[in-house]
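TL;DR need structure tokens for one chain.
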Amino acid sequence: MVAALVLVLAFGNQAFTEWVPRHTRPGTVWNWFLSTLAWPSWTIGGGRDGLAHDLRAVLLLGFVAVVLLFAARQASGAGAFVVGWGTLILGSALAAFVAAFVTADASLLGAFGAASAGSAYGLFTGWIVGVAVTSAA
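>> reply
TL;DR here they are.
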């Protein structure tokens, strides 16, 4: 859970999310990876869409905490790694899906697209949570 919190706080804050496009070249792997890390962006204020982003970050942490609370105790070793990684994939997809209904132009199709982006975030950054869960087990 602490690893997910660090990911959201360190890479989802407004300073980092604004820094990435200004300091990386578009179309590079580095830009793509840093943009993916910044996916659970959050900011204070920003209207309805800003609220949706904040809610997405909070729900991500909540879903990860709930799943890890129940599942992490049951696994050890490689199983703990998979549980941690899968938890971030599932948690980010669910958080994005739910938060998509708060946006100004909310739709079911938009929620599916948001869940897709959320699961991509979990897939490519969830290994960090997996390592943390394995270390704690």
